[in-house]
Amino acid sequence: INLTVASTGGNVTSEYMYGLMFEDINHSGDGGIYAELIQNRAFQGSTEFPSTLSPWSAIGNATLRLQNTSVPLSSALPTSVNVAAASEKTKGKIGLLNPGWWGIDVKARPYTGSFWALGSYAGTFTVKLQSAITNQVFASLDITSGCQAGMWVEHKFTLEPKMDAPNSNNTFVLEFDAGQGSVNFNLISLFPPTYKNSPNGNRQDLMSALKGLNPSFLRMPGGNNLEGDSYHYRWVWNETIGPLTSRPGRPGTWGYENTDGLGLIEYFNWCADLEMEPLLAVWSGMYLGGDVLSASALAPYVNDTLNELEFLLGPTTTPYGSLRASLGYPTPFPLKFIEIGNEDNLSGGATSYASYRFTMFYEAISAAYPSLTIISSTGDLTAVGPDSATDFHIYTLPDYFVSQFGKWDNVPRTHKVLIGEYANVQYNVLDQPLAGVNWSAPKLMWPVWAGAVSESVWSIGAERNGDVILGQSYAPGFMNLNSFEWSPDLISFTADPAQTVLSTSYYAIQLLSNARYNATVPVSSDADFGPAYWVAGVSDPGQYTFKTAIYNSTSAVPFNIAFDGLAAGAKGTLTVLTAPDGLSSNTLVNGTVVDVVKKIATALTANEEGAFEFELENYSVAVLTT
Ligand code: AHR
Q1: Domain match, 64 and 184 both
Q2: pLDDT at 229
Q3: Going along 337-445, which residue ranges are E strands?
Q4: Cα–Cα distance for residue pair 486/189, rounded to 1 Å
Q5: Does the interface predicted TM-score (ipTM) exceed 0.90?
Q6: Domain check: are 8 and 95 in the same one?
Q7: Domain stop point among 160, 176, 191
Q8: Helix 319-326 vs helix 295-313: crossing angle, to nearest 10
Q9: Is 7 found in the same domain as 113?
Q10: I need a surface site. Which of 3, 154, 159, 610 has the fewest CB within 10 A?
């Protein structure tokens, strides 16, 4: 293929071309990136997921009971565990044990913990991190009881193992001396050092993995988890802020109670930590099952969104801006993008969305915050207001992704498009190359390499239209391998950071997202797109970025690329991703990460005609920078 790349004449590219989508699915929040190590720390429950003792177990001859004491820890956290000696003859230590989120990663570093206790116990409490297999104790600390009868007292501690545990099959223990009556406990919490040491922050290793993707935005907090399921529990912003004692949690859409420890402010701190633009989604008046509010019933929720925006953006002289300041954040948070709902084109919601729901939000928000970009959730360019954008989602098969390479080439330039969720979820169906996803059949467990290449073809198509595409984010981002509802996912993990699997799709996005440019430039060619697909961009004069993906080629594809203004001897770097074959995946096998994606960087020099020459095998994703 002979290509000639111009130096000007393309489109200015969105600075947000690659970002992240996050919601609590697959225990990606609780038990995932949110670094809390204790599972079910505050016995939060609802009619849908009643309070439970699981996974706590008794230590010594203790009896554990859930209780709603006459003096609750808080109205948000009314349920606690009562730990009592099983009989009057019980001697020694009694207490309770927590296995973490399917294990606890124990390293020689400080763990910050706390628990609330109610009782008149006057001895010492002991907290420990120990092996679930051998009971070997890695750290133990005695804490003098501060209990005072009739009131909840917080006990804070730092637990510092002297050595790393050999694996993550570890537990947390809290115990005390039997014989002085029972003690109630609540909000039993333990954090490892978090990313950038943010209090109530995120797992260091998973944040570093995200940082590797060079993301420009974070779309949160859902996804379906924003909407609330048939339970009618939408995500409620003001129940996710303030001290943990004032967060009741809610029944998440994905089958488990959410603690909401990872709340609105934590999302904004996460954005600050990774230098991402927040893209905040708000509930649009439709529950996931399709129940829709009338216009009059919706009005208070529109108002609630204005309150949320005042909380985030308002001066401290406003009621909600002052609430923000009282929580330690006097400076307003940055916010440019707000999305109204999630997938309101589905479940019969499109008509009410277009006729009044979106309009009500649009009019109220744009009047109060004219500089915000308001994003509709339908992916339908006709449903949005002026100067706004729409969110298009696509879960599909590799061949279909590739067939959609030119999807954005001729759309009107009047509105922007966010590709807020995309992923290859099943492999091609033989003889029906463009058949859609069969949602009753299993999806892929792990992203496959041909799927990642097809996503790259799709992404290159989006990049070619960087004037209309605001950005794109793969979804879902995370899966806890011990408990998940949706595969495939970008990053899979357990409690043990050594078991984190960065998927084939992760590597492809990492390559493309770390090779940004300011504007596309025209490429003339003597061949059509397919099996090679490409885009070229420029930042400063002479600094070109050429990206290509090869999908379904029967032989290696030779390239000869001349860049306007670059002469013989010009230097370039070609970085190529490949895998053994299209169906290979990065996986976890018997606890060991098997990484199939190979990345090779080669220094290139332009030939006598000033062109760069190289060949790419089938299923390659490559970036040439000059
Ligand atoms: O990413 C998983 C789900 O897919 C999201 O929650 C939803 O928006 C989409 O249907």
Answers
A1: yes
A2: 80
A3: 337-340, 373-376, 389-396, 416-424
A4: 28
A5: yes
A6: no
A7: 191
A8: 50
A9: no
A10: 154
Task: Write the burial class of residue 589 (CB in 10 Å: 0-12 exposed, 13-18 middle, 19+ buried).
Answer: exposed
Per-residue CA distances from 359 to 354, 372, 375 (Å): 7, 15, 12
Is 166 part of a structural domain of the chain? yes
284 located within any domain: no
User: How many angstroms does the Cα of residue 23 sit away from the middle of ligand 1?
Assistant: 9
User: Residues 160, 162, 165, 170: is their CA dihedral positive or negative?
Assistant: negative
* pLDDT single digits (tens) 446-466: 999 999 999 999 999 999 999
Of 191, 225, 247, the one marking the end of a domain is 191
> What are the E-state strand segments in 46-160?
57-59, 62-67, 80-85, 93-98, 111-118, 124-131, 137-144, 153-159
Contact status, residue 340 vs residue 385, Cβ threshold 8 Å: no
Mutational test site, ligand 1, from 395, 419, 489, 491, max ligand atoms within 8 Å of CB: 395
Residues 6 and 97 in one domain: no
Q: Mean pLDDT, consecutive 10-residue segments, the chain of 626 residues?
A: 98 97 98 99 95 98 98 98 95 97 98 98 98 97 97 98 97 97 98 97 98 98 91 92 98 96 98 98 95 97 98 98 98 98 95 95 96 94 75 97 97 92 93 83 97 98 97 98 98 98 98 98 98 97 96 98 98 98 96 96 97 98 98
Q: Is 345 in the pocket of ligand 1 (CB under 6 A)?
A: no
For residue 173, the domain's CATH number is 2.60.120.260
Assigned domain for 331 exists: no
d(CA 278, CA 338): 9
**Nearest-CA residue for atom 8 of ligand 1:** 223
Ligand 1 atom closest to the CA of 343, numbered from 1:
8
Find the domain containing 96 and state its range: 57-191
Q: Indicate the number of domains in the chain.
A: 2
pLDDT tens column, 371-417:
999 999 999 866 676 678 999 999 999 999 999 999 999 998 888 99
Strand ranges inside 437-503, DSSP E: 469-474, 478-480, 491-493, 501-502
